[in-house]
Amino acid sequence: MKSLSVMVTALGLLALAGCSVLEGKPVPPPPPTHQAQEIQRDQAGSLQVLDRFSVERRGSPMDVEHVVRVKANAAHATYYQIVALSELITSGKWRADVILYR
After folding, report:
1. 45 with 29: CB under 8 angstroms?
2. Confidence (pTM)
3. 39: how many CB neighbours lie within 10 A of its CB?
4. How is the chain split into domains, by residue range?
5. What are the φ/ψ torsions at residue 60 (nearest 5 degrees)?
6. Phi, psi of 89 (to 5 degrees)
7. Residue pair 100/47 in contact by the 8 Å Cβ criterion
8. Are 80 and 38 in contact (CB under 8 A)?
9. Helical ranges in the chain per DSSP H
10. Sign of dihedral through CA atoms 45, 47, 48, 54?
């Protein structure tokens, strides 16, 4: 019985230790340029949210990403983050959820 409780405790500690591996460390965003730049979640910590929007486009994921870049530049955003990119039930139609930052 004692070995079972030791094993359960050890597995619990391993699971908790594994959680810290998945947590990203904050990373500064790249220097601003004249075009909006895509950033990752761990780079957005100190930035101010400018807007949020969704884009749906028939074609490929790259077509949706192009529309996102155009909209981000039109909004004078410094950075943008594509939070989700997924194909809709209608084959060939893609949706991106985006956050714009200053």
Report:
1. no
2. 0.75
3. 20
4. 2-101
5. -125, 170
6. -60, -40
7. no
8. yes
9. 2-22, 61-74
10. negative
| Contact in structure between 78 and 36 (CB atoms under 8 Å) | yes
Neighbours of 9 (CB within 10 A): 10
> Kind and range of the H or E element at 99?
strand 93-101
What band does 91 get if pLDDT is binned at 50, 70 and 90? confident
Per-residue pLDDT of 21-34, as tens digits, reads 556 678 999 999 99
Q: Which two tokens stand for residue 100?
A: 């714009």
> What CATH number does the domain located at 2-101 have?
3.30.1660.10
Task: Report the C-alpha gap between 63 and 67 in whole angstroms.
Answer: 6
The H-or-E segment that residue 64 falls in is helix 61-74
